[in-house]
Amino acid sequence: MNTVNYLKYWKDYYKDDLTNNILPFWIKYGVDNINGGVYTCLDKDGTLMDTTKSVWVQGRFAFICSYAYNNVEKNPDWLKISKQTIDFIEKYCFDKDCRMYFEVTADGTPLRKRRYIFSESFAAIAMAEYSLASGDKSYAQKALDLFKRMRYFLNTPGILQPKYLPSLQTQGHSITMIMINVACVIKKVIDDPVLDEQIDESIYAIENYFMHPEFKALLETVGPKGEFIDTINGRLINPGHCIETSWFLMELASLRNNDSALLKLALTILEWSWEWGWDKEYGGIINFKDCKNFPSQDYSQDMKFWWPQNETIIATLYAYKLTKDEKYLKMHRMISDWTYAHFPDHDCGEWYGYLHRDGSVAQPAKGNIFKGPFHVPRMMIKSYMLCDEMLTGV
Questions:
Q1: Which among 182, 164, 147 has a CA at the least distance from the CA of 231?
Q2: Which of 33, 188, 279, 355 has CB 3.0 to 4.6 Å from 304, enough for a Cys bridge?
Q3: What is the pTM of this model?
Q4: Which of 306, 299, 378 is nearest to 342 (CA)?
């Protein structure tokens, strides 16, 4: 493999696909120019199926538009859309208790609230990235204030309803890992000791609680001190989440002067999770596995969703950048070849989100409450950046 040509090919491909396919699709069919914000429930051809707005996707899309502006090209339309989406968030998506909704109507009427704080996490990174793009430091402060509020919600008993009754004490990997990313994004525009405090807490939990070397797996749910819970839920491995965590840690290692211990941790998670997730029969990253190889409970356990493939493309490329080990470039080629052979819709644009295990399309919609303009464009932006950095020697 000619590495330079390979990286040049993907750098150009990521930028072209982002700027001429993914973002134009969502700007044309998803942006609500009347109420603000973005619709996400779009059919194969962009037809609006449901005007319900996913609140966490509002933050995700606002982040993406500013992230693309900051790292791909200074398109003023992207910055404008980011701002109007953040305006929608601030006007309609916060309840009186300062927690955020999960779904609202087209005009912002609240529909549903959940016990999670993921809506808050994506609103925070949107405000931080917009601050960097616009130069308006007030949004950096808003992001930091929201982050501190998130920590208060997480650490104050009684605010967030627990997942289980007191008879079962657990902690989850997903919020632990997302807090690393949120803190890192905010640190680009404003610094505060609480950001590093959260990062260090999350790293400790991942390494000492969620990673279980006896299974060579990072588990989704463990006890308060990492105790193994020998149930279907306690044995669950989500390879996509784990691989996403690995590249969050790689990014953090880079920010911390190429921290070798963090990089080793990240690579271990990537390699364990690739071994569990890569489908040796059909290719692609599978949704769920049981660490004792019992059948998974989730109905979508053997499907191929869009986002685990996106996270794996980033992680393998990042691993190659940081190590120059050819095995990671080979993994990047494997996941890229499979993903681009199955997910893009060459007729109507954008990507399918839900495939059967063999790669056939399970349903053709381009968006819903969960899938929207985030994982695919984030992969393209970050991977474009990684290729460019390697080619320029940054």
A1: 164
A2: 355
A3: 0.97
A4: 306
